[in-house]
Specification:
By secondary structure, the chain is an all-alpha fold. The protein has 3 helices and no strands. It has one domain. It starts with a helix and ends with a helix.
C-alpha cells in the first residue's frame, strides 16, 4: 500500500496545482473541488486495498515451514 499512498498523495498535489487550468473548461464546479479529490482518492485506495487483500489472505494461509521448504 506504500506505492498507493505515494501515488495518491502525488496525484492530489498535482490535481491541486493543475486544477486552475481546468477551471476554464468546467461549468458549475471548481477545478480544485475538495470533495471530488477526496472521493477519487478514496476510490483508488479502496480498489488498491481490495487488490492487495486477495494475495495477502492467500499468503497468510500457507504454512511458514512449507513456504521455506519450497525455496
Amino acid at each position: 500500500m506504500t506505492p498507493v499512498a505515494v501515488g495518491v498523495s502525488a496525484a492530489m498535489a498535482g490535481g491541486l496545482a493543475l486544477g486552475c487550468l481546468a477551471d476554464t473548461r468546467l461549468y458549475g464546479i471548481d477545478g480544485r473541488d475538495p470533495m471530488t479529490l477526496v472521493c477519487v482518492s478514496a476510490a483508488i485506495t479502496l480498489v488498491a486495498l481490495g487488490a492487495c487483500l486477495v494475495p495477502a489472505r492467500r499468503a497468510a494461509r500457507v504454512e511458514p515451514a512449507t513456504a521455506l521448504r519450497y525455496e
